[in-house]
Amino acid sequence: MKKFLLALLFAPLTAFASEHVHLDKAPINLGDYASIQRGARIFTNYCLTCHSANAMRYSRLEDVGLTKDQIKGNLMFATDKVGNIMSIAMDPKDAKKWFGAVPPDLSVIARSRSPDWLYTYLRSFYLDSSRPTGWNNTVFEKVGMPFVLYGLQGEQALKESHGEHDANAKPEFELVTPGSLTPAEYNAAVGDLVNYLTWMSEPAKIKRMEVGIMVLLFLGIFFVFAYYLKQEYWKDIH
Question: pTM of the prediction?
Fold first, then answer.
């Protein structure tokens, strides 16, 4: 019985280990508002067609330096009110029919998958004629999502020397058809997109950290005054 319970306890860890893939480090900098703004534009242009972000409102982008007019003029294609959530018009039934499953909401995808996973995933699509969409991915094998960013990155193929099922090795690709961006520019664009997704998953994090630092500084200064006050108050007793 104990062995059975231990097997159940460690089964998720075993499954995770078997699905281990090489992940590149995502260039996350939540203090870089320009990067988050660029990432928001990529998100609304390429991702928001199929993926919603129902925990996010357009107006929250004012926290990273955008004005209401900038949000309306550059990022809003599915609604006309800045206070609305980032929802999509696609019917879930149609989405399941077209893609085999309803595309997930991306509000907290960076927290559930991790920024490094997203950064590697969005740079690991390759041509695969055996797949219905014509694409596969070394991070998410047999992925059902079409590669919507191929116009930016171009079309790449997985080098045969890598081996599709060698999960511990870093995959190698060769560019078959160039995109509108150079490889370095594409990596930077994906970095901006993942930076935005990371910020969107917890937009209050920066402000909370700033408030936390101020509180710690206040407590540090208050401790000095409290200590000397205590010394003065108890000096005749000790």
Answer: 0.79
